[in-house]
Amino acid sequence: MSQSLTQLFDLDSLLTPEEIEIRSTVRKFAAERIRPHIAEWFEEGRIPARELAVELGSLGVLGMHLDGYDCAGTSATAYGLACLELEAVDSGIRSLVSVQGSLAMFSIHHWGSEEQKQQWLPSMAAGRAIGCFGLTEPDHGSDPAGMRTRAVREGDDWLLNGTKMWITNGSIADVAVVWAQTEEGIRGFVIPTDTPGFSAPEIGAKMSLRASVTSELVLEDVRLPAAAILPHAQGLRGPLTSLGEARFGIVFGAIGAARDCLETAIDYAQTREVFGKPLAGYQLTQAKIADMALEVGKGHLLAYHLGRIKDRGDITPEQVSTGKLNNVREAIAIARECRTILAANGITLEYPVIRHANNLESVLTYEGTSEVHQLTIGKALTGSAAFR
């Protein structure tokens, strides 16, 4: 009898009964509600995001690792497991949840005023309001300090002008957390998207993350009251702390995509006959499967370990970079290798492998490129910053 990856590494022994229950609940939802439709959504480049947001809110996964304001208040590890199960179906679904909970909601929860928290967090946790996070600009991705979006004071108000790019949830968002240069340094603003001068044209013609809404944010003389500023965030620490939350979810999520590819390849190899016997019976196939299983298993162990560190409040940005760099890099390599086992069938949407591979091309470079994470780790180990 064949073993599952969970059995091979005895992964469940590292989780609490509550975490296993949360994982099972999210896995069941993803299998029943999303998996039957995801290939069609990917092919058509659309997603019923508002409908899904309400369902994900009812499931309790939006901002689930935050406390209060109708958020579930789970452990960081439980949140990671939810990301893992969602990305095992599609990176776009996990992105919706990550941007909502780890970027938009976290920013308001961590840096916002009590009024901002009361106004937005309960409806965002329920999925009734969707949020986005505007940091990246057309010419400033890896170097956010160079952003050109500016906010200037006009009396008691703020006037914002600028452009943000590659913004998940942008054109369906009800609220945008946008970062801008001010005379005081970089500050964050909570912007209702029906504010005059704010627009969010959707970006199309994507070959990756097609089951996800990606947009540009355009701010043309957007006038905001003084109360719109995030009062407790000043400088890059604000947005970078939020990015660390999202990167943590990717550590888990990417390995979910890898697991799904591997399980698909094993199942295919067991049923596909070549030269009179199953493909799984050949040594070269088993070598590929064994090598990939090691990396998927190690990726789980790394994610779980980082989850425990985060749960006790000791995680560092360098540790999150280590997890993101390793797990995404291994996941995309596994997706490509699994495609070779499926051969020509691997390029069709009948199987999830090429879809995962395409999605992971985006995951590889968003929330910090591999090069940025390499330099972050290099700086931690050598004491020398090599970004410039």
From TrEMBL:
- What are the names of the required cofactors? FAD
Pfam families, sorted: Acyl-CoA_dh_1, Acyl-CoA_dh_M, Acyl-CoA_dh_N
Spell out the family assignment given in the record's similarity comment: Belongs to the acyl-CoA dehydrogenase family.
- Acyl-CoA oxidase/dehydrogenase middle domain location: 132-222
Gene3D superfamilies of this UniProt entry? Acyl-CoA dehydrogenase/oxidase, N-terminal domain, Butyryl-CoA Dehydrogenase, subunit A, domain 2, Butyryl-CoA Dehydrogenase, subunit A, domain 3
**Has the keyword Transmembrane helix been applied to this entry?**
no
Gene Ontology molecular function: fatty-acyl-CoA binding; flavin adenine dinucleotide binding; glutaryl-CoA dehydrogenase activity
| Name the record gives this protein | Acyl-CoA dehydrogenase
Q: Where is the Acyl-CoA dehydrogenase/oxidase N-terminal domain?
A: 16-127
Q: Which UniProt keywords apply?
A: FAD, Flavoprotein, Oxidoreductase, Transit peptide
- Please cite one Gene Ontology biological process associated with this protein: fatty acid beta-oxidation using acyl-CoA dehydrogenase
Instruction: Give the coiled coil ranges.
Output: none
| Catalyzed chemical reaction(s) | a 2,3-saturated acyl-CoA + A = a 2,3-dehydroacyl-CoA + AH2
Domain (Acyl-CoA dehydrogenase/oxidase C-terminal) spans 234-381
Q: Which InterPro entries match?
A: Acyl-CoA_Oxase/DH_mid-dom, Acyl-CoA_Oxase/DH_mid-dom_sf, AcylCo_DH-like_C, AcylCo_DH/oxidase_C, AcylCoA_DH/ox_N, AcylCoA_DH/ox_N_sf, AcylCoA_DH/oxidase_NM_dom_sf, Glutaryl-CoA_DH_mitochondrial
